[in-house]
Design goal:
- The complex is a heterodimer.
- In chain A, helix 2 (25-32) packs across helix 4.
- Chain A has one domain (2-36, 73-134).
- Chain A has helices spanning 3-19, 25-32, 38-59, 79-96, 100-108, 114-131.
- By secondary structure, chain A is an all-alpha fold.
- The longest helix of chain B has 26 residues, at 162-187.
- Chain B is 63% helix and 0% strand.
- Chain B is mostly helical.
- Chain B has a domain at 8-85.
- Classes of the chains: A mainly alpha, B mainly alpha.
- At the A-B interface, helix 1, helix 2, helix 3, helix 4 and helix 5 of A face helix 2, helix 3, helix 4, helix 5 and helix 6 of B.
Chain lengths: 137, 188
C-alpha cells in the first residue's frame, strides 16, 4: 500500500539531495575543514524548520495518512554508545563524502563505485549484527 | 526561463534546508520515519543473515516501503544529474580548492564536482579499497548508533532528542579526525 507514494518521495529526495549539493564529496570535505557555510546552513535551516514542523504536528494533533498521531520513540540514553557509534560513522562519512542516503543518489548519478560502498556498508551492518552483544549499549 | 531551467540552477543553502525539512514533513505525514541506513540491514536479511543471527530476523514485507523509497532516490539522482543538472560544477570555496591542489595534488573541478572521479574509480585500487572501508565504517556506525544522518541529524534533532545530538557530535568527532589527521596520510 502506498508504495508508489514512497517511490515518488524517493525521487524528490534524490533531486533535493543533488540540488542541495549535500551529496558532493567536495561539499562534505569543505564542511569538515570549516571553509564554507553551505552545509551548516543546510543542516541548520532543515533542523530549525523541521523542529517547528514536528512541534506543530504534535501540538495541533495532526493525524498522519495512517490515522496516527505524530510520536517519536526515544532511544535509551547511553553517552558512550552515541559518541563511539557516531565517531565510527563520521570516519566513514568524511572519507567517502557520502552518508547512506547520498550513496543511493550518487549511484543514480552513474558513479558505479558506490556499488562497492553500499556492499561495504552492508558488510559493516552485518558485522555489527554479529558482534553487538560485546559492545556497550 | 522554463521551470526546468529554474530548478536546474544551483540552490541557495537556505532553499535546500527548507526542502529537506519538507521531505521530513512529507515522510512523517505519510506515517513513515525518515531513515535510510536501515536499508543495509534489510539487504542482510534478504541475503539470509536472519537464519543465523536473531538481529536480522524480521518480516521484510514491513520494509518494502523503505526499499521503494531508496529505489526512488536512485532514480531521483539520475534525473537530477541529467535533466536537472546545473550548467557548472559545484561551486566550492577557494580555500578548499587550494588545499586540494597543494596537499593532495588534485585539480578542481573534477567532473561535475560531486565526486573526485580521478581518485574514486575502478582503475584505482586505492580508491576501491577506501570505498569499501568507508562503506564498512558507515554501515557499522549507523547500526551501532541506531541511525545515520537522516535519522539523527535531521529527524532526531527535529524531535529535540539528546541521544541524536550526542550521535551527531560523534559524527563530527569522527569526521574531523578523518579529515584532519588520517586523510593527509591516505591521500597526500
Amino acid at each position: 500500500m502506498k508504495l508508489g507514494l514512497n517511490f515518488i518521495l524517493g525521487i524528490v529526495f534524490g533531486i533535493i539531495m543533488t540540488k542541495s549539493e549535500a551529496i558532493s564529496w567536495f561539499r562534505i570535505h569543505e564542511m569538515f575543514r570549516f571553509e564554507s557555510i553551505h552545509m551548516y546552513g543546510i543542516i541548520g535551516v532543515a533542523v530549525i524548520l523541521g523542529a517547528i514542523t514536528m512541534y506543530s504536528m504534535k501540538k495541533f494533533k495532526i493525524k498522519t495518512l495512517t490515522h496516527q498521531l505524530v510520536t517519536y520513540t526515544p532511544m535509551k540514553l547511553n553517552v558512550k554508545r552515541h559518541i563511539i557509534a557516531g565517531s565510527i560513522f563520521g570516519l566513514g562519512w568524511a572519507l567517502m563524502g557520502a552518508c547512506p542516503g547520498p550513496m543511493f543518489v550518487m549511484l543514480g548519478h552513474g558513479f558505479l563505485i558506490f556499488i562497492v560502498v553500499i556492499i561495504g556498508a552492508t558488510l559493516g551492518t552485518f558485522a555489527y549484527g554479529v558482534v553487538q552483544d560485546k559492545l556497550p549499549h | 526561463m522554463s521551470w526546468i531551467e529554474f530548478i536546474s540552477q544551483p540552490w541557495h543553502w537556505a532553499v535546500s534546508g527548507a526542502a529537506i525539512a519538507g521531505i521530513l514533513f512529507l515522510m512523517t505525514y505519510i506515517g513513515r520515519s525518515f531513515g535510510v541506513s536501515m536499508a543495509f540491514k534489510n539487504f542482510c536479511t534478504i541475503a539470509g543473515a536472519g537464519n543465523k543471527f536473531e538481529f536480522f530476523r524480521f518480516d521484510i514485507k514491513e520494509e518494502y516501503w523503505r526499499l521503494t523509497f531508496i529505489a526512488g532516490a536512485v532514480v531521483g539522482g539520475y534525473i537530477a544529474a541529467t535533466a536537472l543538472a546545473s550548467p557548472e560544477a559545484v561551486d566550492i570555496s577557494e580555500a578548499t580548492i587550494n588545499h586540494l591542489k597543494e596537499d593532495y595534488g588534485w585539480n578542481y573541478p573534477q567532473g561535475d564536482g560531486f565526486l573526485p572521479v580521478d581518485f574514486f574509480n575502478f582503475g584505482n585500487l586505492k580508491g576501491v579499497i577506501i570505498s569499501i572501508v568507508a562503506g564498512f565504517l558507515i554501515g557499522f556506525g549507523a547500526r551501532y548508533g541506531d541511525g545515520c544522518t537522516s535519522g539523527h541529524a535531521i529527524s532526531g534533532l527535529s524531535h529535540l532528542q539528546l541521544p541524536s545530538l550526542l550521535t551527531v557530535i560523534g559524527f563530527f568527532i569522527g569526521g574531523l579526525i578523518m579529515t584532519w589527521l588520517i586523510m593527509p596520510y591516505l591521500l597526500g
